[in-house]
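Module 6 notes. Inverse folding takes a fixed backbone as the condition and produces residue identities as the prediction. Think of it as a translation problem where the source language is geometry and the target language is the twenty amino acids. Below is one complete input and output pair. Work through it position by position during the lab.
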């Protein structure tokens, strides 16, 4: 597996991957179906190199992350999605490690993410700690933070 910058021609495939990854959790399916815009991947973020892709040995897309530019010393991990068949195989961990490298290179001292209740365990396993509550259009969540 390698992690690299996404290219604009992959945007639709990444959105489809995000949909499959999000549909794993039954409780989110109806909301996502009612709000398909929640799956849209900003083309400017791809063009700016803010979207990184994990690809397998045969070049298949295994997952992707979106790391926003630092503000006030912190980068926001605005998205992390793994192909369902590749979940629990180290893809998410590799994408977080890549985000840490990139955030450090941009002199950030922290990465923050809004984690839905299903994702908090993963983020804890890769070093994030739970912070303040967050509210999303799909329900309660929590800010989680990783000090670099």
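Target side of the pair, the amino acids:
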């Amino acid at each position: 597996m390698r992690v690299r910058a996404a290219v604009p021609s992959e945007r639709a495939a990444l959105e489809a991957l995000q949909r499959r990854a999000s549909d794993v959790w039954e409780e989110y399916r109806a909301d996502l179906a009612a709000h398909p815009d929640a799956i849209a991947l900003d083309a400017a973020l791809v063009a700016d190199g803010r979207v990184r892709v994990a690809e397998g040995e045969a070049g298949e897309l295994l997952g992707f992350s979106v790391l926003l530019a630092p503000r006030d010393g912190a980068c926001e991990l605005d998205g992390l999605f793994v192909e369902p068949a590749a979940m629990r195989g180290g893809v998410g961990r590799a994408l977080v490690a890549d985000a840490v490298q990139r955030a450090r290179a941009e002199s950030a001292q922290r990465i923050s993410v809004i984690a839905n209740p299903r994702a908090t365990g993963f983020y804890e396993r890769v070093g994030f700690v739970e912070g303040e509550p967050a509210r999303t259009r799909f329900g309660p969540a929590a800010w989680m933070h990783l000090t670099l």
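Reference fact for the lab report: Helices lie at 11-22, 26-34, 43-47, 91-105, 120-125.
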